[in-house]
Amino acid sequence: MITVAAVDDDRMLLDGLSSWLAGAEGLCLVAAVPTVDALLARPRARAADVVLLDLVLRDGSTPEHNVRRVRASGSRVLVISTVADRTRILAAVAAGADGYLTKDHDLETLAAAVATVASGATAHSPELAFAWVHDTRPDRPRLAPRERQVLVDYASGLTLKATARRAGISAHTAKYYLDRVKEKYQEAGRPAYTKTDLARRVREDALDTGPDG
């Protein structure tokens, strides 16, 4: 059973979501609240496996701050919204959100996304892919296709030799590409010294499934 909490300041939507999820097999809604403050004030809600978080709340909070607070509590985050606001979507994902959906999807799609997020993976959607395609933030380095391939494979846990074999290049060449990737991220002000750093950059920029820069 996956426990789910919802944070949205639309009362009608929260009531509808509560009824909706009541019939979803394998999902249990433990809280439906209007703010992250209200969520974190409830111990059971704070321990939910996945939090459905509205992209923009009327309390003046920012998407990235809300995502960081929820993630810090131990829950994974699936951001939902009525409008595909690219800038805010990317800020939320960069802050640690595990996926994004617009609210016009059906229950089956939502349930599948929740299960994906609960498993530790990222819930991708056409809206999120569109946001990545149009990502023009200056702190996202533009990687060449081979640089990206080496980065993604190496950050996934492969050794440098295994990464080189998969790319069909020498280990020396793979290291050259990896060094270039590190330089580009460091120039953008985002640390990339260790494999853990690199894995975090891959996740933040959705490079395992997103478009080439």
UniProtKB/TrEMBL annotation:
Xref: InterPro entries: CheY-like_superfamily, NreC/VraR/RcsB-like_REC, Sig_transdc_resp-reg_C-effctor, Sig_transdc_resp-reg_receiver, Tscrpt_reg_LuxR_C, WalR-like, WH-like_DNA-bd_sf
Record's protein name: Two-component system response regulator NarL
SMART domains, alphabetized: HTH_LUXR (SM00421), REC (SM00448)
Keyword vocabulary terms for this entry: DNA-binding, Phosphoprotein
Keyword Signal: no
Top-level lineage group: Bacteria
Coiled coil regions in record: none
Entry annotated with the keyword Phosphoprotein: yes
One Pfam assignment: Response_reg
Ranges that cross the membrane: none
Sites of 4-aspartylphosphate modification: D54
PANTHER family reported for this sequence: TWO-COMPONENT RESPONSE REGULATOR
Residue span, Response regulatory domain: 3-118
